[in-house]
Amino acid sequence: MSHKIAVMAGDGIGREVMPEGLRVLKIAAERFGIALDFKHFDFASCDYYREHGKMLPDDWRDTLGGFDALFYGAVGWPDTVPDHVSLWGSLLQFRRGFDQYINLRPCRSMPGIKSPLADRQPGDIDFYVVRENTEGEYSSIGGRMFEGTEREVVIQETVMSRIGIDRVLKYAFELAARRPRHKLTSATKSNGISITMPYWDERVAAMARTYPDVTVDKFHIDILAANFVLHPDWFDVVVGSNLFGDILSDLGPACTGTIGVAPSANINPEGHFPSLFEPVHGSAPDIAGRGIANPIGQIWSGAMMLEHLGHEDAGRAIVDAIEAVLAAGPQQAPLTPDLKGKGSTEALGKAIAEKLAG
Amino acid sequence: MSHKIAVMAGDGIGREVMPEGLRVLKIAAERFGIALDFKHFDFASCDYYREHGKMLPDDWRDTLGGFDALFYGAVGWPDTVPDHVSLWGSLLQFRRGFDQYINLRPCRSMPGIKSPLADRQPGDIDFYVVRENTEGEYSSIGGRMFEGTEREVVIQETVMSRIGIDRVLKYAFELAARRPRHKLTSATKSNGISITMPYWDERVAAMARTYPDVTVDKFHIDILAANFVLHPDWFDVVVGSNLFGDILSDLGPACTGTIGVAPSANINPEGHFPSLFEPVHGSAPDIAGRGIANPIGQIWSGAMMLEHLGHEDAGRAIVDAIEAVLAAGPQQAPLTPDLKGKGSTEALGKAIAEKLAG
Ligand SMILES: CC(C)[C@H](C(=O)O)[C@@H](O)C(=O)O
Ligand SMILES: CC(C)[C@H](C(=O)O)[C@@H](O)C(=O)O
């Protein structure tokens, strides 16, 4: 039985890194005897928007709903389509429409990638950010009043539900319980945001009672962000709301130096809908079209996808291949310019594919 | 004519660092011929709450409204009073009640304080975070429904007004215009938070047209936080909403290593109400009572207060004295344990006061 994968390259460097993601997945499929069935779509891109006046066809739920996973590049081309239009019309639709309520991002130092933090070596930083991915601060409720006048006011509601909070906490507690350090950190701001965040804290405290083996702590988001810089070794699994998780899952990879190569998974854990895998980086209009984008985020996202589909060994092998090529360094391996090498997107993708093929 | 200063030490280490803040202010007053008239209050502390069931007396507006400035220590004692009660009952009341709509925090590397970032030297990082301090995400509008059931939901509104946004932007543009690099960075999240943040962006764009000499850029908060770590030298003045400013003004000092010594000002620029000056650090229950808290945040806040009151030379002299003592290092100066020294709170305060006295 083959896994059906919907491929959407998106915009900008998304189109350049996607072929490398697919190249490596195909090698993994061969080596581990996995049947992958790819189907390509041109929607969920700003080019599609220019032609059709929308980011997705109206029947996108039916078109994509039957796939086992979505493999996405990067979306956004702000010169022609404002970000809140392109993102809300694609990625954020998928997350909600397919109830991908977990956003999972590893923050792990990688060999050959220097952390911007002093005295941090590969191995020092290794944690996950688990982000609520469907509600919270990313609501679409609210509006504007007294438009165009001095009295103009905008209001937007943050909406958190017990169901929404409890399910992301459960995922995070389970993940922490499986990790060696059994540690969960909750991001809050209950001292300032006085209605939603105290409720978040309550739910964390309630669930902590049912996981006595997991050590739980919490920090307000301001000092938590500071502690990512000051004490990144403190963290094992960090859980946060949609906005706090968004911030922390960029800041974490920044602290490891891996922001250009970090992957992410948007997961519907029950498998009622396809989950989506995409690099953390965006479409990078500034370097798009030059063939120098780093494809590792896309390739690593492919590894997370294989793990999600039940092929942990194949996922692990891809990450090992990435690490081996990174460890070889810019002299021995065709690393891209962001990694101080002279390699192209394609050359780096091929090097990882070859390493994986063995 | 003397400046009337209301002194509130607050909780925990607030009570230990406040005497040192006052010690240094008194020396500055002598040296520069400034008349300062201090009056002490025990409210705005959790001890007061325990006795009176509230953080502030009912007539606090009248009691404090006639002062020229408020000099605050640190507030919070979560073991007995939940943070959202103590903070909303004191600091956040002052900010709103006295319309202190600017929160200003320098992020500056200091001699003798090592940045946790690799390869960053004193002088490399020098910017201000200007935070909106009265509206935005810190609203008190919202509530809870279906309490105690599976359907439970909490809602909190973010409220931004044109007046509220424009006045903080104006302050930030003016500050950027006065600084050598003329650069302003706006923190946004208009790609995800689709109602309030696009409006924020609009107001920034509108005001940018009236400040042609200021270079303006914007980043989404996730990548902006990452760039604080990756490229702290990019920034000159950074402006953000109440929540984004809160996060960035902890993260910035963390990147310079100065989080334990950073000051902040809560300003009502028109002077209709007293402005408030307080260290960035909190009440630190873990080290309270031991006489080892670092008093520099309190002392530096005093310097910001004197500048605000029109005594720039005196403020500058205090900062010079702080820098001189820090530069002397833990062998020569009685630095506190957080700075790898063996000095007490009092000894460090005295050393700075002596340096200032000349
Ligand atoms: C204590 C808390 C309410 C406060 C805030 O979030 O404003 C603090 O973090 C600060 O930045 O002054
Ligand atoms: C592009 C944007 C809407 C998105 C988000 O904020 O969720 C991105 O930053 C991410 O983290 O995937």
What does this structure look like?
Chains A, B: It is an enzyme of class 1 (oxidoreductase). Chains A, B: Its cofactor is Mn(2+); Mg(2+). 2 copies of one chain form a homodimer. In chain A, helix 8 (221-230) runs parallel beside helix 9 and helix 11 (312-332) packs across helix 12. The model of chain A has no long low-confidence stretch (mean pLDDT 96). In chain A, 41% of the residues lie in helices and 20% in strands. Chain A is an alpha/beta fold and 358 residues long. In chain A, the strands form 2 sheets. Chain A has a 10-stranded mixed beta sheet, with helices on both faces. In chain A, 57% of the residues are buried. In chain A, a hairpin with a 7-residue loop joins strand 11 (263-267) and strand 12. Chain A is globular and about 55 Å long. The structure holds 3-isopropylmalic acid (2 copies). One 3-isopropylmalic acid (IPM) binds at residues 191-192, 222 of chain B. Residues 191-192, 222 of chain A line the site of one 3-isopropylmalic acid (IPM).
Write the SSE topology.
Two copies of one chain form a homodimer.
Chain A: E1 3-10, H1 14-32, E2 36-41, H2 46-52, H3 60-65, E3 69-74, H4 83-88, H5 91-97, E4 102-108, E5 126-132, E6 142-145, E7 153-161, H6 162-178, E8 183-188, H7 196-208, E9 215-220, H8 221-230, E10 237-240, H9 242-256, E11 263-267, E12 275-279, H10 296-308, H11 312-332, H12 345-357
Parallel strand pairs in A: 1-2, 1-3, 3-12, 5-10, 8-9, 8-10
Antiparallel strand pairs in A: 4-5, 4-11, 6-7, 11-12
Helix pairs in contact in A: 1-10, 1-11, 1-12, 6-7, 8-9, 10-11, 11-12
The complex binds 3-isopropylmalic acid (2 copies).
